[in-house]
Automatic annotation (TrEMBL):
The chain crosses the membrane at residues 37-60, 135-154. The keyword Repressor does not apply. Keywords: Heme, Iron, Membrane, Metal-binding, Transmembrane, Transmembrane helix. SUPFAM superfamilies: Cytochrome c. It comes from Pedobacter polaris. This is C-type cytochrome.
Length: 309
């Protein structure tokens, strides 16, 4: 019987390990539960096997009991009621183990009740002297001490009263807001993006990781158009390019990168693309789209970057 239980346990552990192994083997993104029919069938079979095993174990155990009874039947013994106790005996029995409740409330055991009676009676009703438990008194005097300290700290000492605390919190919230707004300033969108040379280096890394497959290592263009000349399909100002990268041209095979890149990353890669302007990589794709003319200073290509390249 032990052996069967052991096999059963081992089987369960194996199942568990199998499940864990399968889970870790999947890439993080596809770890959601997507079961096909074959998986469901396997799971159903495994469940069935487990249930069958359980049933077998129970059956075997009962068989064992039956066989044992057959071979060495337990002799029949007549039921004998336990002798009833006298009250005194019962009290004696109880005496040995005071329970938690009586301890907690510092109650005297019932057999000592007589010593607790206060010698006065109202209409023949006696009162017992059950003093308050020590811990309760400690709590009570504790609150007194706390009140004194509280009063001293908040009304005499330098603890802040509610109105002062409120004022302090307002000041702090104001500071937090400033910090938040300063950070939010780092967020870029098509309106706020500007040529910024400091972003180019990071942008290059992002370009290498995400864009080379379609635009070539030097922006010469492969599936996608070249990104080095002044001809653009979707406008050549920095905010146009930002928009193209952010929202994509899904119908033409250019993905929207809004979800995969942070706005900072977008600004970086866009600045990198702008830095490619005027470079002449080998086997660049023929120009596509319209020639883009700089309309305002804030627009497009950072001349500084071009002359550098
Ligand atoms: C799956 C291939 C593919 C990938 C990857 C890809 N692009 Fe594109 N991209 C295209 C195609 C195709 C177009 C042309 C869309 C059209 O014809 O309107 C395009 C267009 C563009 C344009 C507009 C060019 C113009 O002339 O207006 C820019 C800018 C651009 N991609 C930047 C990027 C950046 C940045 C990345 C990486 C974050 C990237 N692309 C990744 C395929 C891709």
């Amino acid at each position: 019987m032990k052996k069967i239980s052991l096999t059963f346990a081992i089987l369960l552990i194996n199942l568990q390990l199998f499940a864990i192994a399968k889970e870790t083997a999947l890439p993080a993104s596809s770890r959601s539960i997507e079961l096909n029919f074959a998986d469901l069938l396997v799971i159903a079979l495994l469940l069935f096997a487990v249930v069958a095993l359980l049933a077998t174990v129970v059956l075997l155990k009962s068989l064992k009991v039956m066989v044992k009874e057959r071979m060495h039947p337990t002799p029949f013994v007549k039921y004998k009621a336990p002798a009833s106790l006298e009250y005194i005996e019962w009290i004696e029995l109880k005496k040995s183990k005071p329970n938690i409740w009586t301890k907690l409330l510092s109650l005297k055991p019932i057999e000592e009740e007589e010593t607790l009676i206060i010698p006065h009676a109202y209409d023949g009703i006696h009162e017992l002297n059950n003093p308050i438990p020590r811990w309760f008194n400690v709590l009570f005097y504790g609150t007194l001490v706390f009140a004194i300290c509280y009063f001293y700290y908040y009304h005499v000492g330098d603890g802040l009263r509610q109105d002062q605390e409120y004022a302090a919190e307002i000041v702090k919230a104001d500071q937090d807001k400033r910090v938040f707004l300063a950070k939010a300033g780092e967020k870029f969108d098509e309106n706020s993006v500007k040529p910024d040379q400091t972003l180019v280096a990071n942008g290059k890394a992002i370009f290498m990781a995400n864009c080379v497959a379609c635009h070539g290592e030097h922006g010469e263009g492969l599936v996608g158009p070249n990104l080095v000349d002044e001809f653009w399909l979707h406008g050549g100002s920095i905010s146009d390019v930002f928009k193209t990268v952010k929202y994509g041209v899904p119908a033409k095979g250019m993905a929207s990168w809004e979800k995969n890149l942070s706005s900072k990353n977008l600004a970086e890669v866009v600045n990198f693309i702008m830095s490619l302007q005027g470079t002449t990589p080998a086997n660049a794709k023929a120009p596509q789209g319209e020639k883009y003319e700089v309309k305002s200073e804030k627009d497009t290509v950072n001349n500084e970057i071009i002359t550098k390249n």
